[in-house]
Amino acid sequence: MAVWDELTGQAxxxxxxxxxxxxxxxxxxxxxxxxxxxxxxxVASAQDNRMTHSWLITGPPGSGRSNLAYAFAxxxxxxxxxxxxxxxxxxxxxxxxxxxxxxxxxxxIKIADVRETVRRSHYSPSVGRYRVIVVEDADRMxxxxxxxxxxxxxxxxxxxxxxxxAPSEADLLPTIRSRVRSVRLRVPDxxxxxxxxxxxxxxxxxxxxxxxxxxxxxxxMAHRLATSAEARERRQxxxxxxxxxxxxxxAVNAAARMLAIAGDDARSVTEERDAVERxxxxxxxxxxxxxxxxAALRSQIKMLxxxxxxxxxxxxxxxIDRILVDLSSLFRDVIMLQLGRRDSVINRELTxxxxxxxxxxxxxxxxxxxxAITIARRRIESNVAPTLALEAMLVTFRRS
Length: 400
What we know:
- This protein has helices at residues 11-22, 41-48, 65-78, 85-92, 111-120, 143-154, 174-177, 190-201, 205-214, 219-227, 229-243, 248-284, 298-338, 351-359, 363-381, 386-395, and strands at 54-58, 99-102, 131-135, 160-166, 181-184.
- By secondary structure, it is an alpha/beta fold.
- The chain folds into three domains: 11-184, P-loop containing nucleotide triphosphate hydrolases (Rossmann fold, 3-Layer(aba) Sandwich); 190-227; 243-395, no CATH class.
- It is globular, with a radius of gyration of 23 Å.
- The termini are far apart.
- This is DNA polymerase III subunit delta'.
- Residues 322-397 form the DNA polymerase III delta subunit C-terminal domain.
- Keywords: DNA replication, DNA-directed DNA polymerase, Nucleotidyltransferase, Transferase.
């Protein structure tokens, strides 16, 4: 099975990476297409076959940026444009000796981690042609960390390949954008995501279609909805709470409940992982289960706990953001019904409730609600207390 088989909706990008993995070596010339190349098929085709030191994969959340990055890494590390099973297992486990991953469980990628990755990027490959470094969420680097990376991209080691992932080119410094070859991903169709869920996760076609539709083609969220009844129930409760707001008191109560739902969702992702990490760390330090932690080892446990707290904060913020995305889909459906576009409804299982809301308000009021959701996302990103941001947003949801 080719390493690309579990990717969906990205045939053009896969063709670019597969051709690059087949190239005999890395080009020393410029990284980006010349001006106007996209409009000249002869130039674009020639550029598509080249291999370069630095890549940037961009696309909306859920489009499969990191999955494509690791598939490309597998092809490069195996020396086979379709990859091989042994290399794939090592890449999936992040244990391949020539693979480095720079990511973060917190809000930003720390500059110390960037410096360490840059230092290790100068190691020669152990078993293959390339040393591959994948930077997930490259947009989470602050300017100082980005400048450290920039110096490395200007003069990369001969056999090192950098693969950066970010939502868009605009999320990175212009100087970094000028030194990478950018590949843009598209949002897969609902049918494409549903087909992937049926094939990969062995769920029924009906469950897969609903999960893909409600996730709005976000592959990771579609997987969660398709495979977790609890995730589906939490989403349904959130939407029903939003549709049931008639007073300011309802808005306040709904904000508290949504925050609790986001917390439950975050804990479902992190709790089991935290426990396994702590157990493995104690075992590696020689501490038996139930034994008191020696004073000399407490600083290492404290570092682990701090990392887990940062991950929990990010997971909570991600959970709140997922709720806001779901609420956006809800009121998008309302305005579609108000405009007579019944075929565009995402949350079809709530059509009766949506019709009641659409008939009790105007499109202008619905647009105000959608704008309130956007403002809430910006406020939370700016470290406004989530409870206050949610309450201010939900007050605009009131319907008679």
